Amino acid sequence: MDAQRIGRHEALLLLAHITGKNKLQLLLEENIPEEQARVFFNALERRVSGEPLQYILGEWDFYGLTFKVDKRALIPRPETELLVEEVLALNPLRVLDICTGSGCIAVSLAVFLKDAEITAVDISADALALARENAEWHGVAHRVRFVQSDLAGGLLREPGQGFDAIVSNPPYIPTGELHGLQTEVRDFEPHLALDGGVDGMDLYRKLLPQAKALLRPGGALFLEIGPGGVGELATAAGFGAVRIKKDYSGLDRVVIAFL
Question: In angstroms, rounded to a whole number, what is the distance separating the alpha carbons of residues 68 and 81?
Answer without folding.
Answer: 16
